Automatic annotation (TrEMBL):
SUPFAM superfamilies: PLP-dependent transferases
EC number assigned by the record: 2.6.1.92
UniProt name for this protein: UDP-4-amino-4, 6-dideoxy-N-acetyl-beta-L-altrosamine transaminase
NCBIfam families noted in UniProt: PseC (TIGR03588)
An MF annotation (GO) of this entry: transaminase activity
A Pfam short name: DegT_DnrJ_EryC1
Organism: Gryllotalpicola reticulitermitis
The family this protein is said to belong to: Belongs to the DegT/DnrJ/EryC1 family.
Uppermost EC category: transferase
Keyword vocabulary terms for this entry: Aminotransferase, Pyridoxal phosphate, Transferase
Cofactor(s) for this UniProt protein: pyridoxal 5'-phosphate
Higher taxonomy: Bacteria, Bacillati, Actinomycetota, Actinomycetes, Micrococcales
């Protein structure tokens, strides 16, 4: 039997037609489909601005640039995330300060984050682990009291809401990922969304080499009609029109994707409830997550055995994530294991089960039977 992946894109004929139409048009990149996609993403996020980019990692790098992060600044974030959440700030010269997580959700603990804040902290970056929104009210309050920016890494959570408010409207600046395993895809891609005109302007400049084309802002506007200037360095993170068109098509099905993920989660929750030593994902009051992952937690001393049994049974499970500061790049900077014990315990117990809209009821039952066999119930 074929391996069942832990995540997979959902592409239909409308998606194919949208991409094909662009390939037959006059634009492949930086054209009308990018504008259309950005408008649709901004509307979904409930904010004025969306800046499309080439990946979720690029979105983080751009967001930290928009926040003005530079050498000597500190960014407080979670270790229970893909390394890009920290790397995006480190690449701007920031010192990364890791704070521990909530044992129930895996999300950054607001109290731990506040304890890590110093007078050099510029940003607190919280991740919606598995699609569960962070405690946005607590982080907004922290930001207001300490004068720091609240960045929400929503790579897992486009389509999630908290108290009825969409992820994208909760933080000062929010980043999305549109990788194939995420809640919708542009193949590779991402976006930065914000209500702030200033942050959006800085994000848009950084993702396009820092180019200034507005003559009112140029230092030498009389050079000629061809003239453009770079006032601060940036990079090329422009999302092509062909991928933006795919994203716009995918957005029309986001609600259906979220609904199916919720059905899969409910089936898993029912099947695994009450098993000794096993924890199913926790959902805080007011949260309506778009579950990107299904993080099942099993006894730490049996995690590898259970993981390998599932792989042998054709279930393509994954582990999310190795604590970011365990990576040698952080180890070589002096970070040590043990500094965030709750996150490390979460990691040692976590296995991500298959979670994507294309899972059939038969697929879900297959996963449940495999997990039951691996655990021994």
């Amino acid at each position: 039997m074929a391996m069942l992946p832990y995540g997979r894109q959902s592409i239909d004929d409308d998606d194919v037609a949208a991409a094909t139409a662009v390939l037959r048009s006059d634009w492949l990149t930086t054209g009308p489909e990018v504008d259309r996609f950005e408008a649709a993403v901004a509307a979904r996020a409930g904010v004025a601005h969306a800046v499309s980019v080439t990946s979720g990692t690029a979105a983080l790098h751009v967001a930290y640039a928009a926040a003005g992060i530079t050498s000597g600044d500190e960014v407080v974030t979670t270790p229970l995330t893909f390394v890009a959440t920290a790397a995006g700030a480190a690449l701007h010269g920031a010192k990364i300060v890791f704070a521990d997580v909530d044992a129930r959700t895996g999300n950054l603990d607001p109290a731990a984050a506040e304890a890590a804040v110093t007078d050099r902290t510029r940003v607190v970056a919280a991740v919606d682990y598995a699609g569960v929104p962070v405690d946005a009210a607590a982080f907004r309050d922290l930001g207001a009291r300490k004068g720091i920016l609240f960045l929400e890494d929503a790579a897992h959570s486009i389509g999630s809401t908290l108290d009825g408010v969409p992820v994208g409207s909760l933080a000062d600046i929010t980043t999305y990922s549109f990788f194939p395993t995420k809640n919708l895809t542009t193949a590779e891609g991402g976006a930065v969304v914000t209500a702030s005109d200033e942050l959006a302007t800085r994000a848009r400049a950084f993702k396009n080499h820092g180019l200034v084309r507005d003559k009112a802002l140029q230092r030498y506007p009389d050079e000629g009609p061809w003239h453009q200037e770079v006032h601060s360095f940036g990079l090329n993170y422009r999302l092509p029109d062909v991928l933006a068109a795919l994203g716009t098509s995918q957005l029309t099905r986001l609600d259906a994707f979220v609904a199916r993920r919720a059905e899969v989660k409910a089936s898993y929750d029912t099947a695994f409830a009450g098993i000794d030593g096993v924890d199913t994902p926790f959902v805080p009051a007011g949260a309506s997550p778009a579950f990107h992952l299904y993080p099942l937690r099993v006894p730490a001393d049996r995690r590898r055995e259970i993981f390998e049994s599932l792989r042998e049974q054709g279930i393509g499970v994954q582990v999310n994530y190795i604590p970011a500061y365990w990576h040698p790049v952080f180890e070589d900077l002096g970070y040590q294991r043990g500094q965030c014990p709750v996150a490390e315990d979460y990691y040692r117990r976590e296995i991500s089960l298959p979670m994507f809209p294309g899972l059939t009821d038969g697929d879900v039952e297959r996963v449940i039977e495999a997990v039951s066999h691996a655990i021994g119930v």
